């Protein structure tokens, strides 16, 4: 079956032009979901709410960026990290104000155990979307993997304030002078 790419041929090369539209604003429905996370009764309910959040975060600004994001996520799922990084590099080059591009690139970098390398993309994702749970928990995990425990614990607490049901909650330890 012949598959026609939605990405124009002139975009297939190196850097993209400044043609990416603004990402959709999902702040209102996401706030409803953040509120729901505070009221759910367990992991299963929280997972359903989190999955709904991912649908919003993975809603790219246009068809071309959606195709790039989807290709990168498929490559990541297949453990083709070289292709995934290529796709996410293209995505952040084309849509530098779309948080999920940075978050996904950071995730691949984290999976490659380059924890230090993941941090700049996580920070950028959080600049663009301060309540992105994936980026918040990714930052916590990266800092903890680097042995930066105090910073990692603080980052983990930020994420848990938004979603107390995160699977990473088992990594929570008391801060100096505090009890859990």
Write the layout of secondary structure elements.
Elements lengths: L26 H11 L5 H15 L5 H15 L3 H14 L4 H13 L3 H14 L4 H13 L3 H14 L18
Helix pairs in contact: 1-2, 3-4, 3-5, 4-5, 5-6, 5-7, 6-7, 7-8
- Number of structurally distinct domains: 1
Rg from C-alpha positions? Answer: 17 Å
Structural class comes to mainly alpha
Please outline the major beta sheet: none
Outline type: globular
- Beta-strand share of residues: under 5%
The CATH topology corresponds to: Serine Threonine Protein Phosphatase 5, Tetratricopeptide repeat
Number of helices: 8
Can you walk me through this structure?
The chain has 180 residues and is mostly helical. It has one domain (26-171): Serine Threonine Protein Phosphatase 5, Tetratricopeptide repeat. It has helices spanning 27-37, 43-57, 63-77, 81-94, 99-111, 115-128, 133-145, 149-162. Helix 5 (99-111) packs antiparallel against helix 6. It is globular.
Which key features would you list for this structure?
single chain; about 180 residues; mainly alpha; Serine Threonine Protein Phosphatase 5, Tetratricopeptide repeat; about 60% helix; TPR repeat
């Amino acid at each position: 079956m012949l598959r026609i790419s939605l990405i124009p041929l002139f975009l297939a090369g190196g850097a993209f032009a400044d043609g990416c539209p603004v990402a959709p604003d999902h702040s209102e429905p996401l706030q409803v979901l953040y509120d729901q996370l505070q009221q759910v009764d367990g992991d299963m309910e929280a997972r359903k709410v989190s999955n709904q959040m991912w649908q919003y975060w993975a809603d790219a600004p246009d068809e071309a960026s959606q195709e790039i994001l989807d290709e990168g996520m498929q490559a990541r799922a297949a453990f083709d990290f070289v292709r995934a990084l290529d796709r996410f590099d293209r995505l952040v080059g084309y849509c530098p104000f779309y948080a999920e591009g940075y978050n996904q690139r950071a995730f691949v970098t984290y999976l490659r155990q380059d924890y230090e390398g993941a941090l700049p993309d996580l920070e950028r994702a959080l600049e663009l979307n301060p309540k992105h749970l994936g980026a918040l928990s990714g930052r916590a995990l990266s800092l903890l993997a680097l042995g930066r425990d105090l910073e990692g614990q603080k980052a983990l607490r930020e994420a848990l304030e938004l979603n107390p049901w995160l699977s990473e909650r088992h990594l929570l330890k008391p801060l100096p002078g505090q009890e859990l």
